[in-house]
Amino acid sequence: MLKKMGVVGALVALVAGSSLLMSCGSGHGRRSALLYVVSQSLFNLSSYSLDLASGDLTLITNDMPSTCAASPASSCGLPTSITTDPTGATAFVLSQNAISAYTVNDDGSLSQPTAAATLASGQTAQGWAVTAAGDMMFVISNGGSNPTDCNVDGGYTADCPAISVFSTTPGSTTVTPTGNACLINMVSQPTCPYSLSRVPTGVSVMTFTPSGGSAQTMLFVSSNHDLTQSHNDSELSVFSVDSSGNLTEQAASPYLAQAPNPLSVYAVNTNPPGPALGGLFVYEGSQAAVTGSVSGWEVCTVEDSNCTQADVQNGNLAIAVKPTTIGQNPITMLADPTNTFLYIACYAGSNIYAFRMNSTNGALTALSPALVPTGAGPVSLAIHPSSNNSNEFLYVSNNTGNSLIGYDLNLTTGDLGSPMAPVIFTPGNPYGIAGR
After folding, report:
1. What is the model's pTM?
2. pLDDT tens for each residue of 8-64
3. 3-state SS, one letter per residue, for the chain
4. 3.30.1490.20, 2.60.40.10, 2.60.120.10, 2.130.10.10: which CATH number matches 10-435?
């Protein structure tokens, strides 16, 4: 059974940053076809070899290192997410109270964890987003159970929900707090949180380069409960991120969510590499009283059917996709490597919905079939290239079903083949998955 947190939105926010596209790089002679899975029951990691022809998973070991450098492992809190860096040389696990770092050995095994970072006292991580370059991590956390001093965003107060920013270098296990309001007085564990006046549920990051300009990074945070009377309960906040990790909230932020109770958020650049004007979209998964939905926004970099000239001048978001009904509890989203197709895992519905994204206006067109079944309680998605250029493999971890399932993903149509035979996850309660 899924181990939930005692706060609003915790169930669905745990994997916001764990649904990361997996790298297939095999630099330094490392094996490329590996999958790592976090267990919330045993607070450890399991590893699987991946057959690049069939997609089949074979257990290497279900007794890999702990998800926490301290003892007992539970002292770091529940592990929620794992990511490998772009070089394939290191891995990081996010738990509720800490980030653990690992060196990936030549045979794909992981070193014992080191304590990379500890969250500020009173903060409980709900998820993270990591830049594609692997140089910054953004952790959202809930803060105290009854915060009373969260009237102004940006000024750090210890019991308020927060965003913490960490910098790292690909290939290194060192993680350094950075960005706004870094509390360097805590010498042993400095923290750099940016306070929020609303409870975050999901986080996503996007970096793009406008034609003739320099790279820009934007951070998107969904929330479903406000701690003041200044906002609405269901919102999407937008931040610009500078090279030092400082966050600046956009002038028009926060935006009222198109559907109540947003649970997840995912930013995607549908343009090919090169000039990135237009084609920047942000999708939100929400859960109403009965059904789930997905809606979308465009980041206005060009004037088009969604964005006015004023929107472009101010860098606003504009509504691109009205709420579309999907399964219950859309907990996480992931695009294919070409940023053409969007896959949404629905926790209570135990299925994955698949859409084609229109690179001009962000419209979502359901694939046929529009959904495929998963095991019970899907929580994380990951994609790995196959040995055939026409397809990839998509994997899902099923938390309450204690299983992993793979699908053949057609890169031309986006269609998912019939589920592969489920792999029983014996440690129990799989959550974040990642690989290389």
Report:
1. 0.91
2. 333 333 333 333 333 333 333 334 589 999 999 999 999 999 999 999 999 998 888
3. CCCCCCCCCHHHHCCCCCCCCCCCCCHHHCCCCEEEEEECCCCEEEEEEECCCCCCEEEEECCCCECCCCCCHHHHCCEEEEEECCCCCEEEEEECCEEEEEEECCCCCECCCEEEEECCCCCCEEEEEECCCCCEEEEEECCCCCCCCCCCCCCCCCCCCEEEEEEECCCCCCEEEECCCCECCCCCCCECEEECCEEEEEEEEEEECCCCCCCEEEEEEEEEEECCCCCCCCEEEEEEECCCCCEEECCCCCEECCCCCEEEEEEEECCCCCCCCCCEEEEEEEECCCCEEEEEEEECCCCCCCCCHHHHHHCCEEEEEEEEEECCCEEEEEECCCCCEEEEEECCCCEEEEEEECCCCCCEEEEEEEEEECCCCEEEEEEEECCCCCEEEEEEEECCCCEEEEEEEECCCCCECCCCCCEECCCCCEEEEEEC
4. 2.130.10.10
